[in-house]
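Hi U.,

Before I forget, here's the chain from the pilot set. I'm dumping it here mostly so it's searchable later in email.
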Amino acid sequence: MNTLHATYRLQLQPGFGFPEARGLVPYLTELGVSHLYLSPIMEAQSGSTHGYDVVDPTRISEQLGGEEAFRELAGSGLGVVLDLVPNHMAASSENRWWADERLRAEVFDWDPESGWYRRFFTIDELAGVRVEDLEVFELTQHKALELVHEGLVQGLRIDHPDGLADPRGYLERLRDEGVPHVWVEKILEPGEQLRDWPVDGTTGYEFANDVTALFVDPAGEEPLTRWYEESTGETRSFSVIADEAKLELARTDFTREFDRLRALVDGRLEEAAAALDVYRTYVEPWSGRVDEADREALGAAPDALRRILLLEERGHDEFVTRFQQTTGAVMAKGVEDTAFYRYFRLTALNEVGGDPGRFSLPVGEFHRANLEREARFPNHLLATQTHDTKRSGDVRARIVALAGLADEWVALRAGWRALDDPHEDELLWQTLVGTWPVEPERVEAYLEKALREAKVNTSWVKPDEHHERRVKEAARRAIAEPPEGFEEFAARVAELGRRNALAMTLLKMTGPGVPDVYQGDELESLNLVDPDNRRPVDWDARRRALSQPPPKFHLIRETLALRRRHPFGAYRPLERGADACAFLRGDDVAVAVSLRGQAPPELGLRGEWRDVLDRALPVRLLERVQ
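Structure:
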């Protein structure tokens, strides 16, 4: 079995399935990763480009090549981590458990009398599964566990555990089944701690947000805030905008969920759900378990409702479970898929699990978070880009640079105007700076999604095609004929962004945890939100990079080689001032990066050390000479 030291995420889909993934194994082995990290592999809806709409959890996808091809991939030299979807399956005629109403009642959260069923978020085509039932668990999880027991799969990534009736119980069953590694796609709000579940950690959004905020120059907060307020008229804090969006979504898109809840317990349930500042609580009516974190999260709830949710008033067990399953969806749709598209002070901060109201992160706080991860979940995944991020790490690294150029950016922006809506205009220019040069078709598709998610001038439910067309035409003109000074400024931002990206990548590759590389991200990756980040990867260019590695590729390959030579020791922060981040891993590895574009700090280490990376790079990775 391969020793776990780095994962590489592949997005499988028809045309890029198990045989194609197997063809990449020699290349990925040379790059230095230990495990493939595969998107869902069970049979999904015909033509599915993501695999989360499973129709048969007992069968490996024929669309991706079938079971024999998967087994060949799993035996080709790299370990395998699977993305598993226990919370929901496709509500379609292709799914025999849904098509047969007798089976539907057994497998799904479905009420035959009313026709109500628990959805995944607001997606009618995805229905919640009763995986808390032992027979349903056996049915839906057996195939994945069979692959684990045969040694073909070494780890599972659990999609959306917050939708489950009993997250802890589900994860304990995986532990009891002997799954070596389990990660949860649990979105933690800043300051929230992962519960003491039997897992290796989360999929890494906390690190992605921390490392982004670490490189934001705090000096840029005042001028960027002033510009955003003056140019848009929006003076409210992000938290106020987010709370408003959560309540709006609870009262509209989630009407059926709250009607169902209100049939169990009456009250101002939408307001209570929107007021939560975390995705959900984890009260267990069946065991009576209530953690202090649950009490804190529900501190602002109305007293009568709070007593019910904390089991101080019994007799409402179904309501408590259902309410907890609903609040995470309200948070996700209200914040990530609405408020993030209404507030654009610095869009690099608008990331899954992030708080755009937190402008920057002091280096001491970054070290504290790393030390906590090391102590509690040493195999926590470390990500800078995933299939769900709003922007790639490289795009965020460019936009982050605007904080250090705030006065210049504001002066230039005052002369640039492409869109009538000032919020949409700000999003456009930050997007262009973050991705330049960029194909207009990509920007048009991105803007259509972003504006519909915002639900202000257009939406998915009621698209205003006239408004969308005007925005796309204006964006295309701005790309074809950028205003004076834009291209020169964008080139400077790109160079600063590359320096930031190298430093962020080095911190990911050397921090406490397991670094995860998203497909293609070993070269500069200027992706926007999906489906932009599922565009085909140029694998030939990456194979060529093995012989002529650009800086980022060189950094990743050499750091992974070091991880194989040296199992990293304890994380030991080094104090080098507010504008640098430096630390030791044990006694034999040292890391130093600048946070503001200067040369990395000198470390003054005793003994003989050698540079692992090219000295021309703006980062330092040192290995003690034995």
